[in-house]
Specification:
2 copies of one chain form a homodimer. Chain A is α/β, with parallel strands linked by helices. Chain A has helices at about 20-30, 40-50, 50-60, 70-80, 90-100, 110-120, 130-140, 150-155, 160-170, 185-195, 230-235, and strands at about 10, 120-125, 145-150, 180, 195-200, 225. Chain A has 2 domains: about 5-20 and about 105-235, 3-Layer(aba) Sandwich (Rossmann fold), CATH 3.40.50.1000; about 20-105, DNA polymerase, domain 1 (Orthogonal Bundle). At the A-B interface, helix 7 of A face helix 7 of B.
């Protein structure tokens, strides 16, 4: 594969660009009024994230019509109210908490790595996060997207092939001119099935110190990098 | 109207942010192989642009299914081959010429004005140009979009209300939290009908020295500015 054929990098966001687990744990343990509840921040983040795939699966299977990720996060948050004793929170607090996904912090290498990558490649998000979530996150954290793509624009959640196909089409590129950048084997396999190039980024602590999945690439991807600065180096940026 | 309620500025692009007429005239008169044909650059630019609204109208009326602006530009270019003696051009030259719309230059104030506006507002394109056109233009010219929206994302060409409504929805905003920025009265009236705020930018030479339309605002818009630096000033950026 020639590096020079690649025109755009399409990024998974949760776990690949931003550190959702530490960001959520920090906010619920340090920001009022949540910090008064003395929640186990990591347990809460893990429980919320555990509902993520099952909730999208209902949309993928057609059990419910299209709803964006903000809406799914809120449905899932409502399921945690009992377990984490959130009953004392007011509605406006829950609305604010639900938008913690718009306030996730990047991994330490992400912004610097992406600025380097942007000199040679179009940078587009290809996330299951909705447009306003990715947009608000980018403005807060300084993530230099050229374009926000992904599930809400395509009307399909990854790993459905339409999510990748529609994104590449909007970029005006052939699939082989785009490379999916992700910390998850399944995402890259699905992108590869549509014809995209693939770069696996090691994020071995995305799910905390006891992570067992996606520690290493399990397939033959085009690039494997320790972080986004390493990817920039490998791509001569 | 409170300035502080506005969260996003949605921009018309052709004529408002970039100077299509001078850009196209310059390219066809200075770049090989077109310059050998000694075309009247302004006459060519005007003739191509004159086919723009009629071609979109066929999509709006449902006479033809959805096609993006690159495709409409190419259909329209084919109609100019006889008039401008383009028969000697090869297919690859026509493909390159059709993408001159991806290579338009901004007005002198645009990039500096938008950098100032970006400090306080989300900046989104809301153009009839397709995503890759606006994206390639932005990377070449340094236009700092937060997000590319508009006709291709909405599946409707302006001034259809769905183009504005879908864009605001994707930003996660109420219409009154977004302001349409455009040099064209009709665009702003259509945006206002959907509930957006409006800012008229004076571009009295967009269509050349003999321009007669859109010289001045013809309705009561929220802001009227001489250029994007003036708009930044008025919005305290």
């Amino acid at each position: 594969m020639s590096k020079t054929e690649i025109r755009a990098l399409t990024f998974d966001v949760f776990g690949t660009v931003v550190d959702w687990r530490n960001s959520i744990a920090r906010e619920v343990t340090t920001s009022p009024p949540l910090k008064e509840l003395k929640i186990d921040g990591f347990k809460f983040a893990d429980a919320w994230r555990a509902l993520y795939q099952p909730s999208m699966e209902k949309v993928r299977q057609g059990d419910i019509g299209w709803v964006n990720l903000d809406a799914l996060h809120r449905i899932n948050l409502n399921h945690l109210i009992d377990e984490f004793n959130l009953e004392t929170l007011q509605e406006r607090d829950l609305v604010h908490l639900n938008k913690v996904w718009h306030r996730l912090d990047p991994w330490p290498d992400s912004v610097a790595g992406m600025h380097r990558l942007k000199t040679n490649f179009i940078l587009a998000s290809l996330s299951n996060g909705n447009v306003s979530l990715i947009l608000n996150m980018a403005r807060r954290a300084g993530i230099p997207w050229d374009m926000i793509l992904g599930a809400e624009i395509a009307g399909h959640y990854k790993p459905e092939p339409e999510a990748y196909r529609k994104s590449v089409e909007l970029l005006g590129l052939a699939p082989s001119q785009a490379m999916m950048v992700a910390a998850h084997n399944g995402d890259l396999v699905a992108a590869s099935d549509v014809g995209l190039r693939t770069a696996f980024i090691r994020r071995p602590k995305e799910y905390g110190p006891k992570q067992t999945m996606d520690i290493e690439p399990e397939h033959s991807f085009d690039f494997v990098a320790d972080d986004l600065l390493d990817l920039a180096e490998q791509l001569d940026c």
